[in-house]
Structure formats: C-alpha cells, structure tokens
Design a protein that fits this description.
Layout: H1 2-9, H2 19-30, H3 34-46, H4 49-76, H5 83-91, H6 93-128, H7 135-155, H8 157-187, H9 208-219, H10 224-227, H11 235-264, H12 267-272, H13 276-284, H14 292-320, E1 330-332, H15 339-343, H16 346-355, H17 358-386, H18 399-418, H19 420-431, H20 433-441, H21 447-464, E2 466-468
Antiparallel strand pairs: 1-2
Helix pairs in contact: 2-8, 2-11, 2-14, 3-4, 3-9, 4-9, 4-11, 5-6, 5-17, 6-7, 6-14, 6-16, 6-17, 6-19, 7-14, 7-16, 8-11, 8-13, 8-14, 9-17, 9-18, 17-18, 17-19, 18-19
Length: about 475
C-alpha cells in the first residue's frame, strides 16, 4: 500500500500509451500533410503517373521494413528516444550526438514547419477560394496551430493522447472522402488519365531519389512509438502489433488515394495544383470543396501533435544520457510532462515557418533524417552480433535490415547528385556538430563556467516547477 502510494506521488513519465493510443499515434503521425502535398513532389521527380505509383508502393514497403526493424530494436533496447537512442546504443556517442544536433537544428524544425505551413494553407483555403491564401496569413495561422499543440503537450500527456485518437479517426475519414468518389468514377470507366502512364518522354531517373524523399515524407511517422517506448503499456506485444497494423493500413489507404487522384486529375493538374486534395474535390465532388480542406488541416494538426509528443522524449532522453543540458531531462511536478523539452522547439520552428519554402524544406531535412535512420538499422545488424545473448521477443529476417539500410544509404548518396545545394546544407548541418561534440560534450564543463551553468539551471528549474525523474522506467 505504502509503495503504491509512493509511486503514485513520484515524478516520472507514466505508462499511459495503450495499444489503441499507439495505433492512433502512428496513424496520426503518418497520415498528415504528406498525402495531400507529396503527390506533387513524387510526380514531378518521377516523371510520369505509372512510376509515381510504383514509388508510392515502394516507399510503403520500405517503410514497413523500417518499422519492423525498429520494432525489433524496441524489444532489444528498452529506452525511449527512437533514432537517437538506437544510434547511441549500437554505434556510440559521436554519431548519436551528430543525429541529435542535426535533428534539433535542421530535421525537426523543417519537418514541423512543412506540416504547420500545410495546416495554415488548408485551413484558410475555403475562405480565399478560388484565390490562394495570402502567405503572411498562412504563416500566422500555421504558427497559431503549432503553439496550441505545444501548449497541449505541456499541459497533459493524457489529453494529447486523446486528441490524437480523435484526429486519427478524422484522418481516416479524410482519406475515405477522397477514395470513395475516386473508386466510383474508376468503376464507371474513367481510366483516360492512366493512358500512357509509363511514358518515357518525361521520365527523370536522376530525380528519383527526390521522389523517394517526397514519398517517404508522406509515410514518415512509422517510427513514432520508438520515441515513447518507456510510456507504452506492454511494449513487447503492443509495439510490433501497432506498427504492423498501422503501416499496412496506411499503405492501402495511400495507394487508393493516389489512384483516386489520378482518376480525376491529369498529371498536369496535379503539378499545377497548390492543394491536390482541394483540386480533386473541385472536379469530383463539388459539395466536398469546403469540407476537404478542413479535414486535411485537422490531419496536419494531428501530425504536429504527434511530432511534438515524440521529439520531446528524444531531448528528454539525450539530456538523461548527458548529451544535452540537464534541465531538459526534468518533468513538471504536477503535470508529469517533460515541459522544458516540449518548449525547446518553439524558437526554431517559428523561424523556419517565417522564412522556409515548403518543397525545398522536404529535401533539406530528408537527407539528414534518412542518413541516421539507415545508420540505426545498420546498428541493429551490429547489435545482433555483439549481443546474441539478449532476449528477442520480436525478430525480423536479416535481409530486412540489410536491404533497408542499403536502400536508405544509396538514396542519401544519390540525392547529393539530384539536389546538391540543399543536400550540401543538410550535410554541413550534420558536420557542424563535430566541433561542438569534441569541445563541449566529450569533455567536462570548465570550473569557471560550472557554477554559472548550474545557477541558471536551478533558477529555470524553480521557474518551470520541474524535477528529475524519480523512478527508473527502463
């Protein structure tokens, strides 16, 4: 009785993510702006409708391979933190810090900015149609939506999870409203847009890595439960189950959605559209014109929620591992949320929303993200041979991590040729972490700075009402 009371009063991150919430987190993170933005990027870089559909399916299978690898990693490494903790535990502290550096300063802000801008664009679409919404208004609404999600994640884990459940249902409804009219028209014989689907006139093989990035952006989110592993209920069972069901569901949904798009819209229509889903509604189902943008905006809202919910755990774990300031491994004494880690994304996302271009941002962060995901699955192969004695409740065939790693690293290498300017920026961002690691992380804080550092940490700790985790959860 006394022990139970002590645990109830202790400050730590509770296991509040059930199987349903894990499924909602994955669905809610994958089905976001990607399926409503990326068809344009995939088609533009693949060259024709037929290859673009192959890219969508290949990205889905590749995402499933990656999700299975991460499900095994989550049973071998019981800490939260996703990519970061897997790279740290398998490849060491230097590559894990480089990931953390790139993720915080490039990958995550760019990803959040893309989704926030999509949210602002779609939610304003009905008010300005047929004209495009003014860019300052889009950015203002994008930031407002992001700040609302930021506040919610600072306030309550349970409320964030409940919101994700509701938004996941809305996301599936949005896909259904595109799939059903499209399939009905296809059944009536409207196949003219699939004539010459594999025309070689516009085929662009050198741009395929960028088509891959755009498609994988739409599927990104299959790894989200690995970031909150310590908060999952029965993770050995629920994590693999949630991952497999959610990724297969999204693959089927995305393929049907793209077929519906191309049943109604020509390739030229898709490339000319600023909002593919809205263009679809204008031609297929006029009564959906005002509904589709709102549903898409809510889908983006759910992806923002899932992104903040999970990345805050990466900063929390990195701080606990000694590679980030100690303040960010602290938890609010009453709300039991990692408040400092949640708030840290505020300035960079704000800056990227204000200055970023939505399509170039995709290439900017995709290089760094897929480099480290490939390294994490490489780490799985290494970890298997280093620690054959570890229990493995879930194990995938060896060809899955090998093929996934090779494809990821090959696409990363090819993208340097496809978009050298933005890839060079992403590469420079990763490499800029080297001096920081050797000057700051790998050596102790100088005595002259330690007192000041701890003084400011203590003052912020009192101001935010946060303390270190009191119960070990891994």
């Amino acid at each position: 009785m006394g022990k139970a009371k002590k645990e109830e009063e202790a400050v730590f991150l509770r296991k509040k993510i059930t199987l349903l919430r894990a499924f909602s987190l994955l669905i809610g993170s994958m089905v976001g702006s990607g399926i409503f933005i990326s068809p344009k990027g995939v088609l533009r870089n693949s060259g024709n409708v037929g290859v673009s559909l192959i890219v969508w399916f290949a990205c889905g299978i590749l995402s499933l391979f990656g999700a299975l690898c991460y499900a095994e990693l989550a049973t071998r490494i019981t800490k939260s933190g996703g990519h970061y903790i897997y790279v740290l535990e398998t490849l060491g502290p230097l590559p894990s810090f480089l990931y953390l550096w790139a993720e915080y300063f490039a990958i995550r802000p760019a990803n959040s900015a893309v989704i926030s801008l999509a949210f602002g664009n779609y939610i304003l679409e009905p008010f300005f149609a047929p004209c495009a919404a003014p860019l300052p208004a889009v950015k203002l609404v994008a930031l407002l939506g992001y700040y609302i999600v930021l506040f919610l994640n600072s306030w309550s884990v349970s409320w964030s999870a409940r919101l994700q459940n509701v938004l996941s249902v809305i996301k599936l409804l949005a896909l259904a409203l595109i799939i059903v009219p499209g399939m009905m028209l296809l059944a009536q014989g409207h196949t003219e847009n699939f004539q010459d689907a594999f025309s070689s006139q516009s085929l662009a093989l050198d741009k395929l890595p960028l088509a891959f990035y755009a498609g994988m952006f739409a599927y990104s989110g299959w790894f989200q439960t690995s970031f909150v592993r310590e908060e999952l209920v029965r993770p050995e069972r629920n994590n693999p189950l949630a991952v497999i069901v959610s990724v297969v569901t999204v693959i089927v949904g995305y393929m049907l959605t793209n077929v519906s798009y191309y049943t109604v819209l020509t390739a030229e229509d898709v490339l000319a559209s600023q909002a593919v889903a809205v263009s679809f509604a204008q031609k297929a189902f006029q009564r959906l014109i005002s509904v589709i943008p709102i549903l898409v905006a809510l889908s983006c809202f759910g992806t923002m929620n899932g992104g903040i919910f999970t990345f805050s755990r990466t900063l929390f774990v990195a701080s606990r591992e000694g590679q980030w300031p100690p303040l960010f491994s602290m938890i609010h004494i009453r709300r039991h949320t990692p408040l400092p880690a949640v708030m840290l994304m505020f300035p960079l996302v704000t800056a990227m929303v204000c200055i970023g271009d939505i399509y170039h941002l995709l290439n900017f962060f995709s290089f760094s993200r897929w480099l480290f995901i490939g390294l994490a699955t490489l780490g799985l192969i290494i970890h298997r041979y280093r620690h054959p004695e570890l229990p493995r409740p879930f194990k995938v065939p060896l060809f899955i991590p090998i093929s996934f790693t090779i494809i990821c690293l090959f696409a990363v290498g090819m993208s340097v040729y496809s978009d050298p300017v933005y890839i060079s920026i992403g590469c420079a961002m990763v490499l800029s972490g080297f001096p920081v690691y050797f000057l700051v992380i790998s050596r102790p804080i100088p005595d002259c700075c330690r007192t000041t550092f701890y003084y400011f940490t203590f003052k912020l700790q009192v101001l935010l009402e946060v303390v270190r985790q009191e119960i070990r959860t891994y």
